[in-house]
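seq as requested:
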Amino acid sequence: MNPELDEAWRDFTAQRERFYADLRQWPVTPPLAAPELRRHLCERYTFQAARPAAELVAELGALLRDGTVHVTHPAYFGLFNPSVRPIAVIADALTALYNPQLAVWSHAPAANEIERHTLAFLLGRLGLDPAIGGGCFTTGGAEANHAAVILALSKASPAWHTEGVRGLPGAPRIYLSAEAHHSFDKIVAQTGLGASALRKLPVDPSLRMLPAALTEAIAQDRAAGHLPLMVVGTAGTTGAGAVDPLPALATVAGEQGLWFHVDAAWGGFACLSAEHRHSLAGIERADSVTWDAHKGLSVPMGAGMLFCRDRAGLPRAFGLEAGYMPPSTGGVQEPYTSTMQWSRRFIGLKVFMALAELGEAGWRRLIDHQFLLGETLRRRLAGAGWRIVNHTPLPVVCFTHPDWAPQDPAIDRLLEALNAQGRTWISKVQLSHHGWALRACITSYHSQELDLDTLLGELALATAAVTGR
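struct tokens:
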């Protein structure tokens, strides 16, 4: 190898070792601001002269260390960004090294079969039949949800492919809760369905979709000449981790002849836990499921997954012919004819290697630990006088001060004071029935009760600074 690259690899290895050894001692939040970062980049990187590889690795590693919210930190209790398993980092490096082209099976037999094998295993854990069902890796949950909508449209009307929205027998309607992910707002814009296609239904005090409201909305839309298309149940809402009543929604969707999709982008990881799998009861009745490995399975972004009950729906939705592509391989489903993507990264290797390294029992221990830590945090917050405002089996806790109104600006002042210290990080969220609240989610398999100690201590200090007591 090139001696300069040898030195760069040695520096990268040293950075990797320091990263895992020192992460807990680093501040969670970055000290750098946009003007400082932009000035540094403009001064150091004009791209007018070559730079040694080792120098770049050292400098850019330091810049990322000092200019990143460390979402893999064990005291980060923010969005769904878990700590990454080291084996998954190696998997991403192997993927970059070999750079397989997954558009057709014949160009990457090993990579395509590794992904098929991984998806089949997880499909079974969702309660779907791997012999009939199928799936694909995606860039994330938004793409997986988008693909699910295309699957539903393709099944509802063959004319969708030739005539688009005009070929549908009515204006399509997609039913989801007011707490569902906003990716669907983008999807209806990107597909040309329009914002009116979304029927965002009310939720109960536990922030779960009301099945009676779903039944009523479908009846109203049929009477108005619209086309009820799809029911979306969420298994772990982004805001509060609410799990919709999936069995009841599946029943309504089945009786009405609608596609039933479950967005389990985060909550899908519960399927690997024998103790907590019941939290997602009803997911096995879905026509399609979204699940993000980069949210619950501790692999680098992006690693979304779409699963479907009947894999025959994939080529119906995405199939085509292109004269410049290699001939199809008999007995396999060509990726470019059964996914939204064409050329794409070998996403599945990091999921495969993460699953293989720990095994199912190892993953069960990690997941159960996160559930237990979530329950511990919920109990300790309540014991410290905070009011819990969400009800979910999943490890995310939404809470507020009992003296604060839902729109109290004290929430923003507390967050600013707490996150500025850099020892921990949480977010705020706006919830139906509750207004604004604080939100803490267990995302790291490294997190321990000592990290909850840090959070509780920082909350107490920030609250005293805001309230003066």
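The chain is about 45% helix and 10% strand.
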